[in-house]
Structures are given as structure tokens and as C-alpha cells.
């Protein structure tokens, strides 16, 4: 008999949630807005999630675990956020299990969002028959998940894959070459705010061609660096911008024709979009809970 879980995906502007089963069925899902950059994550965010958990448990009394995918460096054993980007106010050093203890005593499985995403793709997605891969998530920042010999690689202290901190073209990669980074470039150069990067890319808007070209250049250089370092079978592009089929083709062409011109590495690595997009982390959370509760 399948188990029921509560799943959370903590991003920078939205908190996605789902009620799911251990056999990867989604009963219901939705999201709520939360401005992590300007509201206190240690108190306000944890209270918002905790109160919702109480509501879910009242509605589904047979829930037996909580899975959390989150931005930031995570100690998966203690559930502490080791470090977080500036767009998550007062989030570092938050112990998730302790913060939610007044609301629930259910088991909690938690990991970095990109780690959850690559685990989800390896379990139920495009990486099911792949043991060596990189997944990057393009959202408010750029996250990275690393799969080596079929296992998620977390590094010495759980911070492996924090690729957004790399510097490309003298800029922080995650700040300027993420989904939000494209909007940031347009604002910097043309003083136009709040543009949707998906709309810019899908419609090939000519007035932003300079920013788009620079953005693709920086994104492609970072991806080429990861391919050179890890020699993966596949590099997966996930997150909100994975909806745009243009991205992988333009990145492949840029890397082939302008970066790794004399290298065979790009030919042995398939650059593709994630199967589940933003939902990849959800399936990864289910897998974490299945392993924890088996």
C-alpha cells in the first residue's frame, strides 16, 4: 500500500507544494508566493509552512513524511541550511526540523533543490539509464546537481554543485546568467524592469538581442566548463527556463562553434532539457522519503 507525503519546493519567490504518494502519484499540488529576499525565512517562512502542514495532516491523517527541496547548501542529516544566497533572508543556519517541530513530528527528508531535481530525473525521468550526469536549474539563481556512478555527489560538506557561485565573464554565474539574470541584464542596459525571460527567449524579441546574445555566451561558457570538468554522459537543463526548447540548441551550437572547438567532449555529452521541468525536484523528494522510510 502506498504512503502519502507532503512535498515542498522552496524557491526564491514561490513555495511549491504537493500531496503525493510513495508510488509517484500526485494527489494535488499548488504554490504560494513568498518573497524570500525581503521576508524572514527562519521565522515567517517556517511558520507559513508549518501552519500549512497542520492543515494538510488534518485533511490527510495518513500522511507519514515530509520531503523538502530547497535553495541553499543543506546538511541532509541534521536538516540545517548550511549557507544560502542573499535572496533568502536569514535562511542560513536555520534547522528545518527544529523550526517545524512545534507543528509536526513527522519524518523530514531534505536536500538542495538541484540535488533533488537530478535525483528525480534519475528515478523517474530522463536519466533513468544514465549514471554520470550534470543537471543545472535556471531560475532565480543557477543550481547544480551532480550524478557520479549513479549517486548524487554532495562533496565534503554537502555543498557540491553550487555552480551559481562560479564567475564567468567577470560576473557571478547564477546572478547574471540564470533566468532572473536575463531580466537583470535588460534592466541594467535598457532600464526596463520585470520582463519575463521566457517571453524574451520564446519570442526572439529583437530589441533585447544584445542582452540575449551576451546571456547565451555566459551561460554556454559555464556549461562548457562543467562538461570539461566532469565529462558527463548528459547535461540536463532544468528549472523554469527548461520550457524553452531554444535553449539547449543555442547552447550546443555556441559551445561547439565557439568554445570547445578542438575538443571531443561536447560530442560525447548530450545537452537536453529535463523531462519534468520544475517538477523534477518533487519526484526526487518522493525518492528521498521512500529511502528514508523503507
TrEMBL record:
Entry's Gene Ontology molecular function annotations: kinase activity
InterPro entries, alphabetized: ATPase_NBD (IPR043129), ROK (IPR000600)
Protein's UniProt name: ROK family-glucose kinase or transcriptional regulator
Record key words, sorted: Kinase, Transferase
Family affiliation: Belongs to the ROK (NagC/XylR) family.
Record carries keyword Metal-binding: no
